Amino acid sequence: MEQEILGLFDKWNETLQTGNPAEVAAGYAKEGGILVPTVSPLVRHNHAEIEDYFVHFLAKHPFGTITESNVRVYGDIAINSGLYTFELDGEEEDSRVEVKARFTYVYKKEGDDWLILEHHSSVLP
Fold this sequence. Notes:
Layout: H1 2-18, H2 21-25, E1 34-36, H3 47-58, E2 63-74, E3 77-89, E4 96-110, E5 113-123
Parallel strand pairs: 1-5
Antiparallel strand pairs: 2-3, 3-4, 4-5
């Protein structure tokens, strides 16, 4: 089960690579999905708000790598929290910057799919 939950980040990261905000938002639960993002001061409370965040975030061509992961599974709820690093487009042309951050994903199993119920990310102090 732990490998399945770890694979959910890879699936989410792959949707980032599509550049399609609606595809990324589709991985979040329609009922009660919350995003507390790394690079925005606004909490996103629904699919429209989550998709709006990714319109701006995807413009930076992000690619994430987990550096520490802690998975716990409680029936149809799973939690993965730890540390990840994102590479993003920098301010200068053809430059990339690295952002190290903490994360928590709370997943809920809906049918055969695990959807993100809550996603919190904050820059590592």
